User: Fold these one by one.
Assistant:
Number 1:
Amino acid sequence: MSTPVPSPELGAFLRAHRELLKPADVGLSATARRRTPGLRREEVASLSGVGLAWYTWLEQGRVTASRQVLGAVARALRLDAAGLRHAMRLAGYHEPVAAADDGRGGLVTAVQPVLDSWPASPAVLLDRYFDLLGWNAAWSALWGSPETVPADRRNLMWLMVADSRLRTVLHDWEPLAMNVFQHFRAQAGTALADARTGEVYRRLEEDAPQLRHWWGCHSVAELTARTVTVEPAGTGRIELSLSSFHPVDDPSALVLLFTPRAEADRARMAGLSERPLRSVASSH
């Protein structure tokens, strides 16, 4: 059973979203000039059906909230599904997930043949922390083999911001990297309450300190489908369609699939995937 806990991180998250809203966003008229951005605390409290003092304490991380009351606050703040889910996690309401070690082996065994069935489409299996559990040959051919990355950094967040090959190959990496981080924030636990989440943040702080402002951001989002352009050396531009889905055996895990958009993209991706095989064959 998950247990609600007072959470300064929840308070900061709610405050950040309150400050983004305008009175008109929630059907209020802006009358007097406001000294602070966004809605006032009393306005959110009124829209949520709670007392001002209690809502103030909630933003200060001094009280807990039931699921129902937190849902009302989320509606008042116009949080989307990802934002509501993140708020619930910050409050201490967690969905049951497979045990880290007990469930991983079976999950990888079940999903790896699926990844391997896409020889020209890079695909990877991630756990709830975005640690890489499995990948196919096309993924290794495009981004480099995850086996060359230290285990504690074998994480999609770390690869997106700190791996030089991925950033060299990927065009316009920043929008995708930011979306990955926003989804990571919505998917993983809090850094204070969850050891692996805290470790991921520490590795990012060590290896990508120039993006420290990302780690302090409170925005969350779903990972959205999009077209990704890559240009591996000696191959030319390849356009890939990014999609994702959750394995039925563990809904907290995630499969990312990069599918070539056109036949020319598929041919280039297939040629790239065959390079290691040709190299091995020529060495015998």
Number 2:
Amino acid sequence: MKQRTLKQPIKVVGVGLHSGQDVTLILEPADVDSGIHFLRTDIDNAPLIAADAFLVTDTVMSSNLVVDGVKIGTVEHLLSALAGLGIDNVLIKVSDAEIPIMDGSAANYVDLILQAGIEEQSAPKKFLKILKTVKVEEGDKSAQLEPYPGFCLDFQIEFDHPGIPKDTQHYLFEFSTNNYIANVGNARTFGFMRDIEHLQNNNLALGGSLDNAIVLDEKGIVNKEGLRHKEEFVRHKILDAIGDLYLAKYPLIGKFSAYKSGHALNNKLIRAVYSDPENFEIVTIYDTTDFAIDYKI
């Protein structure tokens, strides 16, 4: 497998979910082994901010990276799309402190990347292969990575709400690009009407609307069009996790299992993996016959 970048730049304008501000986003092709970086275009001499779990300093409602006091927030949906399509190297220019929310899923970013085209590069793709089971917990929440010949995510949420039936709160996802596009990439973020006033009083969800989130009141789903998948809530949690885990800087070879996990615990898990060199190795894959990750579109 070869590393991938974009064939041509992408430019889009959207609203920041939490800031409510219009944001111009430009994605540009990048060289082999350069990785994924963000650049704030509204700040003179702004530092390059790597997509790196160790730069995450805030996980309230999203994953946010900070370098030298310069922040780029809500990176998980875009990173999820990049991971889903196997993009290794890209420069992301942003005109504000937050990535646009688009429709609340990664679908718009997937479409834009496919329109721009994907360029295979000369160097082999690198993966972070999990060698030992690593688990982190906070209260009743847990997240785990274990050895597995591919990339699989097994996620369970727990909500006592009539709009989220118990039989829709678990989803097992075997990664491939086509499976990602069809079954996870278009799952939208969600929130509860009862929480919106509190969030907005704390300058969060200022750009939220029925156009970019599933909203639930006490009885059920407010959005007239309903759900895209019956398990859309837990599928979105998997979308988030794929983006959060891409902050490991490499696609993973392993199985991710989670119970009620979120951005903070996902980040804690990556840091726990890196805390012991015996937990992982960085590999390139030349023979894919026994390897279940498929980036074909």
